[in-house]
Design a protein that fits this description.
There is one protein chain. By secondary structure, the chain is an alpha/beta fold. It has a single domain, classed as TIM Barrel, CATH 3.20.20.70. The chain contains 16 helices and 13 strands. The longest helix has 18 residues, at about 10-25. It catalyses: a 5,6-dihydrouridine in mRNA + NADP(+) = a uridine in mRNA + NADPH + H(+); a 5,6-dihydrouridine in mRNA + NAD(+) = a uridine in mRNA + NADH + H(+).
Amino acid sequence: MATTKFISVSERLAPLMFWRAVKTFLGLPRAVMTRRSPPPPMSPRAAKRARIDHLTSEDFKNGVFLAPMVRSGALPTRLFALKHGATMVWGPEMVDKAILHAERVVDPITGVISYNGKSRAMFTTHPIEKPYLIYQIGSADPELAVQAAKTVMQDVSGIDLNCGCPKPFSTHAGMGAALLTNPDLLCSILTALRREMPPEITVTAKIRLLPSQEDTLKLVERIVNTGISALTVHCRTRNMRDKDRATIERLREIVDFVEDMGKGIAVIENGDCLGWNDAHRVRDVTGAHSVMIARGAESNPSCFSPKPLQDVERTLVPSYLRVAKYLDHNWGLTKFCVAQFKGQHVTIRKAEATLMRQTLAQAKGFSGMDSIVGSWTGKEEFEEIVRAIETNPPRDHRLPSPTTAEQPEESAIVETTPPGTQNPEAPGSGAPFLPSSYHSAIPAMVTGHDATTPTPGGGVSVATV
């Protein structure tokens, strides 16, 4: 039977004591017991993308906005406006009945959201613009206006009522400027919208001046009391057209009147503002909380930047065409928008600009612009827009507060507006649906005398207020 040999503690420690004595004799350092060093701190997590809250009345102050424009306010134009500094963008006006039975379709590749009717495409948008997008409704019926707003509210941040379009196709149905002389109906629509919309959806209105300042103030008082978040005033009367100078000097009294009401409502000026640099002048004259740009942006969507693009035939047109093609935007509508672009020429020669215009006039589709565009890198161009919007949120791009505003530096950049620009009438109810693969030639579009084409983002748009 095997026996177990027990080893005493002193025997176990003997080797250790021996080597410790050797180290001491040789002058070697003894091992020092230390606590384990704490692990290096973990690198901080990447900050989560800031959550963008819903709009409030304050978001409509100290901004420069893209106005609602027929056809010119298409999705690519809105995206380029946001990229270059527009605080918020208004979509083209849509008649209430037109959107009610639309089918919402999402492109799985680009993310574009289309509202398609039974016979035509009605409206297109993209989630990247939702925090900054105001959807404008043309309506003469509170119930229809509410139904139309509920149809699209998941893809927009606010609903705006058009109360100023002077075109007969709008006024004959009691919409647009016809509401200015029917304040009971106007206010009932706004009241219904505010009552039925969730609080995160703002309700605003866009009007024109009445001939009498006293009547204008009475109307403004009633509108503000409906609970709207902001009021845009186009500083022209119903009978005035774009060629007539906007009477912006009348707005200051209106702004003071609204501020005295104590509701914190923003008053937005619209009329004869050419760009970011010009917005300072307009606000100094009017006292408006914000400024809205129409024809200046139609001419150059980068006008919202303190340094708008020059030589647009080279710096804007190719990029715009690439993005429009990638988003499967209708060629006819794209061609119309590009034909409006104008800007100061610095390095580009007149011959190059003329060649681009001639090529555009003759093009029957995107492929007809190959010589101008070069590589069709639309996906990369679109991703650049997304990065610009996420890196520099448009709602942070604001005019200085009036109390701290400094005189803007004189800009050497000339911002131009297409002379004699007129918005075409909306298409009739019999307009056929245009599939995304269909591209038709509309050569007269460059001349400005073409009939409208029912297309995504412009199908049933009516003229700008």
